[in-house]
Amino acid sequence: MTSSRTDFPAPSGSEWWRDAVIYQVYPRSFKDSNGDGMGDLGGVTEKLPYLKQLGVDAVWLSPFYLSPQHDAGYNVADYRTVDPRFGSLEDFDRMREEAHRLGLKIIVDLVPNHTSEDHEWFRAALAAGPGSPERERYMFREGTGENGELPPNNWKSLFGGRAWTRVPDGQWYLHLFDSTQPDLNWENPEVWEEFRAILRFWLDRGADGFRVDVAHGMIKADGLPDWDEQVHMVEGTDSADDAAAATHPTPGEDPEGPGKTMDTGPYFDQDGVHEIYRDWNRVLREYPGERMLVVEAWVGPAPRLARYVREDEAQQAFNFDFLVAGWHRDRMRDTIETSLRANSEVGAPCTWVLSNHDTVRHSSRYGLSSRTAYPNGIGAQDEQPHPGQGLRRARAAALVELSLPGSAYVYQGDELGLPEHTELPDAARQDPTFHRTAGAELGRDGARVPLPWSPVGEGLGFGPAPWLPQPESFHEITVDHQLGDPQSTLSLYRRALRLRHELGLGATGFAWHPLSDEDQGVLAYVLPREDGDVMVAANLGDAPATVAELSTGELLLASGQDAVVGDTLSVDSAVWLKL
Predict the structure, then answer these.
(1) What is the pLDDT of residue 249?
(2) Rounded to whole angstroms, how far apart are CA atoms 421 and 403?
(3) Residues annotated as part of the active site
(4) What percent of the chain has pLDDT over 90?
(5) Would you say 337 and 6 are in contact if contact means Cβ atoms under 8 Å apart?
(6) Which of 91, 478, 494, 579 is deepest in the core (most CB within 10 A)?
(7) What is the rounded distance in angstroms from the CA atom of residue 87 to the CA atom of residue 95?
(8) Rounded distance between C-alpha atoms, residue 112 and residue 197, angstroms
(9) Nearest alpha carbon to residue 532 among 554, 511, 506, 550
(10) How many CB atoms lie within 10 A of CB 470?
């Protein structure tokens, strides 16, 4: 049997970001160096040797700017300084210097869609009044209704409730997220110039790149037309594309879950946003060292996302289709195929990601009864993930993610197999989504719990009184526990990352193996190399699967001790083979 799917040649280009493994640090939950309950830049610097030993190439830090922290730093009050909770600019410089000494790149978060209500621009806008240049920096509008008492349109906030707030003089301002996060007006040249200056500020301090928050959101449709839909944080909708991907489901599985695209309406993915990235691309080219942008753009289908990574725009875009594909062979296979095809047409690498700070951790998603479940949070009243099943699948998925051509993103704790905290008390939750929806959406706190470093020490080695409580399940899977266990998830990641670099897997071509179209539920592909091809096989089916190459190839890596039995690949297991 031969595959009807496309083979892809090795990508061109040698820039570091084309096949980098990038580790996401969520600073407030990584390591607390001063005992105040919140992680900080000093903690990041302390643990950079751990990340070097893990085998990653770069570190992306979620926002550490001055902020009132209403949305965990994504409401920025000053883009040119560090919030005292996290340290100082000098702490950033020390961290960057140590990272570069270790050979690690530093990527900082950029939040260009909105500021904090505490930003000096927004304070000036409120003081200046309607029609002023200060208000033109934001999306202020007159209301509707007899006396302007109704909002300018019917847009809803992604965090729940309406997307407009009225100020005392009667005007309304737009906030696609929380009311403390007013949207900037990207029709204003002053906004463009300000963000060029912000980019240069951090590039001058040695930043190697930027992750762009809500990268598809800065430009709104002309006239701000009404739109009746509700978009949720990082959540797709059912679509024809998704239905097509499930026409050959894994045996015994009824596909369900979110679609792979989202209806972005009049405030996301407008064509004008691409001019911003062309402008920023020119700024990055002023600097040596292959500086880069990676955009957070929840758009689809894949060819539309690929527009963000054309040669004169950003260098990478997060591949969220892969994240939401679930533990489903056909959905994962078709996502890989369409992503590689779309990006190859514009000469850009793909990215692969399984979890981040906005999503339920994949080791818990994969433990739910539905293979394609994608909840917006898991609470004590919800179905509880099966920890053994979830971890087994997460380990196998890691071998898929880390072998695919392109760049891979690892969210802090992925390498430990950390589960979601599914029993957080409501009183501990801080996500504005939870509070704006009166608990209807649990929000993202369960994936943001501070890391467990050691069974010895306060907060499992994170520090005293962590800002979110850690679950009991963290006690037996700390970094120190796993470093001494050759079968631990941490040890698996370290071996996989070492082999990925040694074999150059992120920069190879790609060819489907016929098993990917057969009925066993196996995802299989070959990565061509001059000194011996590498085959990757993952069993997403319901029964052990025969893989002939297990008898003839050299086993390089297996997701578990029982992954291989003779020439069969166990359920929820994956292997790397040298052919």
Answers:
(1) 34
(2) 28
(3) 213, 286
(4) 87
(5) yes
(6) 478
(7) 11
(8) 12
(9) 554
(10) 19
